[in-house]
Amino acid sequence: MKFKNINTMKLTLFIGLSILVASSVAFSAFKSVKSSPQKNEITVNQTFVNPIENDDSLGDRIVRYGMEFLGTPYVAAGCSKDGFDCSGFIYYVYNNFKIKVPRSSSQFENFGEEIPIADVKKGDILLFLSPTRNVIGHIGIVSNPKGMDSDFIHSTSGREMQVVITSLKKPGYTRRFVKAIRVL
Fold this sequence. Notes:
Papain-like_cys_pep_sf; endopeptidase fold (from Nostoc punctiforme); protease; alpha+beta
């Protein structure tokens, strides 16, 4: 590039350096804004989380995790991804969230806090009588809370013989329903 005089050369250098400095300052500012949390974000283990977009409750996460096992076969005394009985399913799902619950459905009778069925939330547990005895013999996790019309996810030894979602409106469950409990 030829310059007609020294002043043109100085001006061109000055403009070039100004652009370079301005670009560097702008890049640094962008980098610091990009690496720091925004107004609505909180830092969790160096990961930025927007609480407005991440409002899942523990109950929602428990239900979502339980749904991953839909179709898993019913296995008597089962407590693994290979197969569950009803309490083994509850035990496995809650244990994933470091929540200690009994391993046997009958042990849930005096466990947790009893709540009115109208107040159930996702992740609460429904207790049912055994179909053949007058003891707690079946349990499930509330997946869609609607009082006595709630849906629950459970491992059934009934016709389906797998992890399923069932409505509490289903007569066989309505008749055997004992109570709802909260353990969260």
